[in-house]
Specification:
Elements lengths: L2 E7 L12 H8 L3 E7 L12 E2 L9 E2 L1 H11 L8 E10 L2 H8 L3 E6 L4 E2 L1 H6 L3 E4 L9 H12 L9 H5 L18 E2 L2 E2 L9 H19 L1 H14 L1
Parallel strand pairs: 1-2, 1-6, 4-7, 5-6, 5-8
Antiparallel strand pairs: 3-4, 9-10
Helix pairs in contact: 3-5, 7-8
The chain binds S-adenosyl-L-homocysteine.
């Protein structure tokens, strides 16, 4: 069975969206992964098909109802479905490259996209949804977050990326940000390509890329740099 994603959303037309293009789109055509959407509104019970209600305790905005979302989840993913269940949420575990690898080595994912102020806590608890965040900012819904997470996962699935070596040196894979890239023309508006890259000396090129990666990480991401240094210490 290929990696299989099921998205629960009020906006199924947002899918596959960008995931239907380029690398992930070709991979979907090849059958390397599959996507299914479920319209949460189909599980509404009143004649207006409403899915949200005012927050208990008062306050601004609306909350997605637990009963309706639970029915949508149970219908898309029976209890024996082995796939992990996620809720895209700014309160969640941060999406990282290592979470993307973890998902890519599994059977797929069931992903709930929130809207409004959020969803009733009881369905998060009873259906054991793991909350995942794509960053410290607020999106208007979970759909773009879900697309972001899936994009990061799909490119890691076996057979999706031709050149796996390029994946291994990527930012975050080594614990460092990646070194800068150059290509033709040799002279761009008076700016040359660094000599070392034209030297043909593979060891020197490797060393230069490594020191650039370290410099960029130190300057831009002290948090990653500290973790990287701590790791190096462990190796020694
Ligand atoms: N009131 C909530 C934000 C609701 S935003 C709060 O303050 O935490 C509406 C929906 O968008 C959320 O339910 C979630 O599904 C999605 N969303 C917003 N920002 C997100 C982020 N950074 N990562 C993942 N999902 C996010």
């Amino acid at each position: 069975m290929p990696f299989s994603a099921t998205i629960l959303t009020l906006y199924p037309d947002m899918f596959p969206g960008p995931l239907g293009q380029s690398l992930s789109g070709r991979a979907m055509e090849k059958g390397l992964w599959q996507l299914e959407t479920s319209q949460i509104r189909d599980f509404a019970t009143d004649k207006h098909r409403s899915v949200d209600d005012t927050p208990a305790g008062g306050g601004a905005g609306m909350v997605l109802r637990a009963d309706i979302l639970a029915k949508a989840i149970d219908s898309a993913a029976p209890a024996e479905d082995p796939r992990p269940r996620f809720l895209m949420s700014p309160r969640g575990r941060p999406l990282t490259q290592s979470l993307a690898h973890e998902l890519a080595s599994g059977p797929g994912a069931i992903i709930v996209c929130g809207r409004f102020e959020g969803i009733d806590q009881r369905v998060i608890d009873s259906r054991r949804l793991e909350e995942v965040s794509v960053g410290d900012y607020i999106l208007s819904g979970g759909e773009i977050a879900a697309i972001t997470m899936l994009d990061a996962v799909i490119r890691l699935l076996p057979g999706v990326m031709g050149n796996m070596e390029s994946a291994e040196t990527e930012s975050f894979e080594t614990g460092l940000l990646e070194h800068p890239h150059y290509t033709r023309p040799a002279d761009f508006e008076g700016l040359p390509i660094p000599d070392v890259l034209k030297s043909g000396n593979h060891q020197k090129i490797h060393d230069w890329r490594m020191s650039e990666a370290e410099r960029l990480t130190r300057e831009r991401r002290p948090d990653l740099w500290d973790a990287y240094m701590a790791d190096e210490d462990d190796v020694d």
